[in-house]
């Protein structure tokens, strides 16, 4: 399953029982490849290095180029300061993939693992980074994803698929991944931003382990961030997303 979701599922147990968990066996939604790949020639556009399709409605000036993808990710040191805990473990993936089934309303499943479930074949560059205190035992899990398309239209198509106009109807829905159950609460859904919460449900009620999530579309780029902890991760999430967005702006 997705490292962020695995963090959701096992961290609540590690918080209360401090059990050791093998997490990278758990990275089945995004794989365990490290950066160095992560550039995917779009099937209906140029190679990843060209940055924009000839038919793109995004101008070369506006398009965010693949070589900027990694710079949009907020560093482990900065994220540690924002969540108030030293995050020593870092995982990376450069390919979106899915193999762990999600049980629940089909149109809501992307909220469980944003920018991984079905990103199409027109993406050019993918970055997925997750931090936590330790690989096996942790009390915070933070995930950032950056997904670049060859054109603004391609990015918009995928954003609209993952976060459609009726995504607010997912509030109250429960999604199940492996043995864990999560209740969705959509806070905001607009044409350029989605914000929602996943609460772990145990014995029919919230366990206290909560993940705050946000996704954005900016030109030909989709980005998302997830902060999971026992407490309010909202301020840290906002700060991380603000920094990611700022990094997309021209220097």
Please supply descriptive tags for the structure shown above.
Protein Transport Mog1p, Chain A, 4 helices, 251 residues, single chain, 9 strands, alpha+beta, 19% helix, globular, 9-stranded antiparallel β-sheet
The succession of helices and strands, N to C, reads HHEEEEHEEEEEH
Uncertain runs are: 10-37, 41-61
Instruction: Assess the beta-strand content as a share of residues.
Output: 25-35%
Top-tier CATH class: Alpha Beta
Which word captures the global form? globular
Structural class of the helix and strand makeup?
alpha+beta
CATH topology: Protein Transport Mog1p, Chain A
Overall CATH architecture: 3-Layer(aba) Sandwich
CATH superfamily: PknH-like extracellular domain
Number of strand elements:
9
Task: Note down, in words, how this protein is organized.
- This protein is of the alpha+beta class and 251 residues long.
- The chain has one domain (3-40, 59-247): PknH-like extracellular domain (Protein Transport Mog1p, Chain A, 3-Layer(aba) Sandwich).
- It is 19% helix and 29% strand.
- It is built from four helices and nine strands, in the order H-H-E-E-E-E-H-E-E-E-E-E-H.
- It has helices at 3-17, 76-83, 152-162, 234-247, and strands spanning 89-93, 102-103, 123-132, 140-149, 174-177, 180-189, 193-202, 205-218, 221-229.
- The protein has a nine-stranded antiparallel beta sheet, with helices on both faces.
